Amino acid sequence: MAELPPEGKPQPARKAQPAGKPPAPMAATPWEDELTLQLRAKFGEQILEFSSYLGQNFLIARREAVIPILEYLKAEAGFDYLVDVTAVDYPERAERFDLVYILYSFARNQRIRIKTRIPEGFRPASAVPVYPTANWLEREIFDMFGIEFAGHPDMRRILMPEDWTGHPLRKDSSILDMDQRWVRQHLGIESGQ
Amino acid sequence: MPDSTFLDATELVLNMGPQHPSTHGVLRVILKLDGEKVIGTECVIGYLHRGIEKIAENRTYAQFAPYVDRMDYVAAVSNGLGYCLAVEKLLGVEAPPRAQAVRVILTELNRIASHLIWLGTHALDVGAITPLFYCMREREEILNIFEKYCGARLTTHAFRIGGLQYELYDTFEQDVRAFCDMLLPKVDEYEELLTGNRIWIGRLKNVGILTAEECKAYGVTGPLLRAAGVPWDLRKAQPYSGYEQYDFEIPTGTNGDSYDRYLVRIQEMRQSVRIIRQALDGLPGGPIMGKVPKVIKPPVGEVYVSIEAPKGELGYFIVSDGSTQPYRVRVRPPSFVNLQALDRMCRGALVADVVVVIGTIDIVLGEVDR
């Protein structure tokens, strides 16, 4: 296949976009239905955008408004199942991280995403009081991206070793990077490569 | 979550695992005990963390596909199906009808294989050795079919983005039908061994109860949610791969305890056979690959696609930046989320029940840790 990388070598962290025309932005269309009207009436300017892409609805909210929106959706709109919480890193952006909450409603059989943007060092409020599922999911985000959640009952690493330094899923952490000190101390070797 | 007062005089802290036979892999559970009663648990995971999500960002879409098989390695076909569907959605292509039907057959076979492994090992945990041999014997037939189809038995990489790489081999239909005919009486046999067995009932009944409300609060899906009486299955709720064409039921329980989870999984094997037979009856002809470009380069966008894996909702959240490599792949693993409810299920139970509860969640550590 044409896409194979050079023999056995791991590829560099990420190839820069080839010069020339940048790819077109996400072709999202506006999302409007009963729920968006309700939310707009309740939260107004706090919600920046209601969009839909490939038939999947999402909204972008101001970071302070996320937890009130989750509370509202759970209590008033039947979104009783928090499917997933995750983050996406855009290091070149001023508000570096996207936080993504995926919700599902059993009653409506409907899935929506709540997105928000947060800068480096910002401590978003934890969703654990609203959805207990968020506990481990937020711990994983902390582990992988270094985003600390305020009010989380147990903000520790979950997958990486406790005394590891660095957050592997940040874009500035290459797959060749590792905590050399940790490897030397715990594995007794110079490098894990 | 347990606090820092682990070492009170009346409390005993016991480490279960990471190398414990009933944790089904490298899971460490720290138990806080009062006599034999569990007053708190803490899971230590990550021993099998390989950074699958990071690997994805450094591979092309097609190159990453084999890696997903290494998450839930007893249900590798389901992992592959979810990933292919997610990338196909981003690309705007759909697998042709023949490929979809074959995908359903192989995925359901894999569901049976996963449930068989669960049943055998769980019975072993509880002290019944015989079912393990029976279950492994039947699972072998499934693995043989996989091997004949694609050459691999466990980490199959059976599907390609856009369809299938291989056409079915000549005796595929015959083999699968023979397997279906063979399996149903065997499932009855397992039931004869276990369903009315006093020890089995004594160990499983009313152990690890999780109500429907608690399931929803903890995001628990799959057989655990159905055992609590919620007839929710993504194959019915949001059908994919043509599941809407097949006639099958969603088995549910009433108590949400370990025994009901066992019954639900037994019923699911029978339902899977039903689906496989229908898919074989109506197997369409035609191409097995959709119109997929040589270089897979989805437009900028993001998508969340989930399927009903044997363990629950398996989701892929993929962000594309318009290049040949995904910008971000997030896997929503059912085992990881379901395991979180372990503490809720174990509090107040006995040490021996912890083994049962870990067993009935049906975790695969490769998927918990990724």
Describe the protein in words.
The complex is a heterodimer of chains A (193) and B (370). By secondary structure, chain A is α+β, with helices and mostly antiparallel strands. Chain A has two domains: 29-159, Beta Polymerase, domain 2 (2-Layer Sandwich); 160-193, no CATH class. Helices cover 21% and strands 22% of the residues of chain A. Chain A has helices at residues 34-43, 66-76, 134-145, 180-187; strands at residues 29-30, 47-53, 56-61, 81-89, 97-105, 110-118. Chain A has a six-stranded mixed β-sheet with strand order 1-2-3-6-5-4. Chain A is globular, with a radius of gyration of 20 Å. The radius of gyration of chain B is 21 Å and the shape is globular. Chain B starts with 11 loop residues before the first strand and ends with a helix. The mean pLDDT of chain B is 89.
Number of helices of chain B: 15
In total, how many domains does the architecture of chain B comprise?
A: 1
Residue-averaged pLDDT of chain B, rounded?
89
Architecture (CATH level 2) name of chain B = Orthogonal Bundle
Main pleated-sheet profile of chain B: 3 strands, antiparallel
In oligomeric terms, what are we looking at?
Answer: heterodimer
Q: Roughly how many Å apart are the termini of chain B?
A: 23 Å
What is the CATH fold-level name of the largest domain in chain A? Beta Polymerase, domain 2
User: Architecture of the largest domain in chain A, CATH level 2?
Assistant: 2-Layer Sandwich
**Strand residues, percent of chain B:** 5-15%
Tell me the radius of gyration of chain B.
21 Å
